[in-house]
Write a structure and sequence with these properties.
This protein is 70% helix and 0% strand. It has nine helices and no strands.
Length: 169
C-alpha cells in the first residue's frame, strides 16, 4: 500500500475513530487527545501494517492499547507512596471521626451478613474483596476457577437477599 493510499484510508475512518475514542474516554477533550496520539502512532508505525488485512481494526487496536496504557499510567500516578520514617500515613487510622451512626450500623450489619455466610463461601468472598484474582483464590483454596466464581456469586446473592433494606433501587 502506498503512502497516499494509507493516508487516504486513515482520513476516511476519522469519524469512526472519534466515535470510538469518545466511547472509551467518555470525555470530548480526552477523546481528541486520544485521536491525536493514535493518528501519530499509526503514521509512525505505518510499516507494521500488513496489506490486505482490516485497516480499521488495526487502528482501533492501536487506539484501545493507547487508552489502556494511559489509564494504567494515570492510575499508577495517583498511588500514594508513604515515605515518612514511621509510615505515618499507612499506620494512621482511616476511620473518619465524623462517621455518622447510620453508616457505622450499616457496616456492622454488612459484616454480620458476611460472617453469616457458609465458611467455604465466605473465604472465597473475603479473598475476592481483599483484591485477589480468581486464579489466585482458586490456587489458594485448591478449587477450580468456576467454583470460585460460583461461590462469590452465591455469596453476593445471599448478602443481597439478607440485606434488602440497603437496596439502592
Amino acid at each position: 500500500m502506498t503512502a497516499i493510499e494509507f493516508n487516504y484510508q486513515l482520513t476516511g475512518i476519522q469519524k469512526y475513530m472519534e466515535s470510538f475514542a469518545k466511547q472509551l474516554t467518555g470525555n470530548e477533550d480526552d477523546a481528541k487527545d486520544l485521536m491525536q496520539e493514535t493518528n501519530l502512532k499509526v503514521l509512525i508505525y505505518r510499516d507494521k501494517f500488513v496489506n490486505n488485512t482490516n485497516f480499521k481494526a488495526w487502528v482501533y487496536t492501536i487506539m484501545k492499547n493507547i487508552f489502556i496504557n494511559n489509564y494504567r499510567r494515570n492510575k499508577k500516578a495517583r498511588t500514594i507512596i508513604d515515605q515518612t520514617d514511621d509510615l505515618y500515613f499507612l499506620n494512621s487510622s482511616t476511620i473518619d471521626k465524623r462517621t455518622n451512626p447510620e453508616s457505622m450500623l450499616a457496616a456492622k450489619e454488612l459484616q454480620a451478613g458476611i460472617d453469616a455466610l457458609d465458611k467455604e463461601f465466605r473465604r472465597a468472598f473475603d479473598m475476592y474483596n481483599e483484591g485477589y484474582k480468581y486464579k489466585e483464590i482458586a490456587d489458594d483454596l485448591d478449587l477450580t476457577i468456576g467454583t470460585v466464581k460460583s461461590r462469590i456469586f452465591y455469596s453476593r446473592k445471599k448478602l443481597m437477599e439478607n440485606l434488602t433494606e440497603y437496596d439502592p433501587t
